[in-house]
């Protein structure tokens, strides 16, 4: 009787054991996340077109501010019988004519002319005073030297509004023939005065360095992921001046590096004392910059969880479904935690290096494998799940698109290339070409797709303040 009963009992125990074995609990060890090294991205030099456009009106205004009142004085009447003082009578007018600056200076002249003789030690002189006004016309050739507009000015003509005369022996005698030769004596001084005034008023360095300081201040590209774009000026290039209607254009170019950093706002590393102006025949303006498509592990986990919805993995009646996905960083690799239900309950840990599909704009894991502890436990309790064919099917769902991130990044950059003005009189415009993938980097809380973008940027400095 005992032997007869023992058979059903053993059969029941066997069925119960096999039934429990079909719903196994997988107790794997979690690979704890670690700290990724802070990322600073590699940069390549970029060349930004930096044209400075100065209106002739600005040159006129600033020249007038530097040249005022008495501009020439000769008080020594003994040497040539003339004493002359010249004042600027009205605002100077400046225009462009055949790629030269034409300056018209309204002036007032006070001339004292001495008539008489000195005989036998006795001086017999009569001093006459004349107040005249007229226009001096000067022409200037222009060039750029040491951040300044340099001019070489020549006095072309002097036109009096009325002919100066003097009564000699009861007759009005024109004395232009006396005064004009005297004025030629100060011709070089008037020319120098104009050159000095233009040079002082057309010093580009303060404006250029102020503009560079503004655009070198890091600005936030993405608030959610705390990504920042920083421009680091290296050198300034300058070529020849060009006249365009009522303005002068100084062709300048900026050599710089551009980098994206993650975290709190980085410090500006702009140092105006290290910026050197170099003369070149041609200004390059092609830029190459790095942008970062940032995907937080949380966002990537949500996208990948959706990929697994409704899918079963296994063979025959041994199957699992992925309920949730979590991602984190470990030893330079990506850990993918799959919470599963089915023939096996628990968490499966995978590890691999993320890669990028240029055509699909996707992050994927081509060399995905089980974490060592996970694999050893699967081999003991669910060998069917450890098979490569199931892992390959799981791998197909371990991917997600970063296209939305790219679109957002391009949109953000475009905002800074569409007549963006960081300060009064400074405007930034440009265009972007195709985006090229460079590499993927892992941080503590995000996957970063490092992408290179080519294009052109113009930073136009309009006028001088």
Number of domains: 2
How many helical stretches? 9
Question: Approximately how much helix is present in the residues?
Answer: 10-25%
> Biggest sheet, open or closed, and with what strands and sense?
10 strands, mixed
CA radius of gyration = 41 Å
Distance between the termini: 113 Å
* Number of E strands: 27
Q: Structural class, from secondary structure content?
A: alpha+beta
Identify the overall geometry. rod-shaped
Mean of pLDDT: 79
pLDDT below 50 for ≥5 consecutive residues: which ranges?
Answer: 1-21
* Quaternary structure type: single chain
DSSP strand (E) fraction? Answer: over 45%
Explain what the structure shows.
By secondary structure, the protein is α+β, with helices and mostly antiparallel strands. The chain folds into two domains: 25-50 and 204-465, no CATH class; 56-201, Bactericidal permeability-increasing protein, domain 1 (Super Roll). It contains nine helices and 27 strands. The chain has helices at residues 2-21, 56-66, 176-184, 187-201, 205-215, 297-308, 372-381, 388-397, 403-415; strands at 24-26, 45-49, 52-55, 70-74, 82-88, 93-97, 100-119, 122-145, 148-160, 165-168, 171-174, 219-222, 227-244, 247-262, 277-279, 286-296, 312-315, 318-330, 333-342, 344-352, 354-357, 362-365, 369-370, 399-401, 418-423, 426-442, 446-462. Strands 2, 3, 12, 13, 14, 15, 16, 25, 26 and 27 form a ten-stranded mixed sheet that branches. Strands 1, 17, 18, 19, 20 and 23 form a six-stranded mixed sheet that branches. Strands 4, 5, 6, 7, 8 and 9 form a six-stranded antiparallel sheet that branches. β4 (70-74) and β5 form a beta hairpin. α2 (56-66) crosses α4. The model is unreliable at 1-21 (pLDDT under 50).
């Amino acid at each position: 009787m005992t032997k007869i009963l023992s058979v059903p009992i053993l059969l029941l125990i066997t069925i119960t054991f096999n039934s429990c074995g079909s719903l196994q609990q997988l107790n794997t060890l979690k690979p704890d996340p670690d700290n990724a090294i802070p990322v600073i991205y590699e940069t390549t030099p970029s060349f930004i077109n930096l044209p400075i456009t100065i209106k002739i009106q600005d040159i006129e205004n600033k020249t007038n501010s530097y040249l005022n009142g008495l501009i020439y004085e000769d008080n020594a009447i003994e040497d040539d019988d003339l004493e002359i003082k010249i004042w600027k009578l009205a605002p100077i007018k400046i225009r462009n004519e055949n790629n030269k600056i034409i300056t018209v200076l309204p002036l007032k002249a006070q001339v004292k002319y001495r008539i008489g003789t000195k005989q036998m030690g006795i001086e017999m002189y009569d001093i006459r005073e004349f107040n005249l006004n007229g226009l001096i016309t000067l022409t200037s050739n222009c060039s750029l030297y040491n951040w300044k507009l340099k001019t070489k000015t020549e006095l072309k003509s002097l036109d009096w509004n009325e002919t100066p005369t003097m009564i000699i022996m009861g007759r009005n005698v024109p004395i232009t023939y006396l005064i004009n030769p005297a004025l030629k004596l100060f011709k070089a001084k008037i020319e120098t005065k104009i050159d000095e005034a233009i040079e002082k008023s057309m010093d580009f360095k303060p404006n250029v360095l102020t503009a560079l300081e503004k655009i070198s201040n890091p600005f936030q590209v993405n608030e959610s992921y705390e990504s920042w774009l920083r421009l680091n000026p290296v050198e300034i290039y300058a070529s020849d001046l060009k006249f365009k209607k009522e303005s002068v254009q100084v062709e300048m170019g900026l050599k710089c590096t551009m980098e994206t950093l993650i975290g709190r706002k980085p410090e500006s590393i702009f140092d105006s004392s290290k910026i050197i102006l170099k003369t070149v025949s041609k200004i390059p303006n092609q830029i190459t910059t790095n942008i970062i498509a940032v995907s937080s592990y949380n966002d990537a986990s949500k996208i990948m969880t959706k990929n697994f919805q409704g899918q079963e993995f296994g063979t025959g009646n041994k199957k699992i479904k992925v309920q949730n996905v979590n991602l984190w960083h470990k030893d330079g690799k990506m850990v993918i935690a799959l919470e599963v239900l089915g023939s096996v309950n628990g968490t499966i840990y995978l590890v691999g290096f993320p890669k990028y599909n240029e055509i699909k704009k996707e992050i994927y894991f081509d060399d995905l494998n089980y974490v060592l502890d996970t694999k050893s436990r699967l081999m003991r309790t669910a060998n069917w799940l450890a098979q490569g064919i199931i892992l390959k099917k799981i791998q197909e769902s371990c991917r997600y698109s970063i296209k939305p991130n790219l679109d957002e990044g391009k949109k953000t950059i475009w905002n800074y290339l569409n007549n963006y003005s960081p300060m009064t009189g400074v405007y930034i415009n440009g265009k972007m070409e195709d985006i090229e993938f460079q590499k993927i980097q892992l941080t503590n809380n995000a996957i970063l797709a490092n992408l290179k973008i080519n294009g052109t940027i113009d930073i136009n400095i309009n006028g001088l303040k």
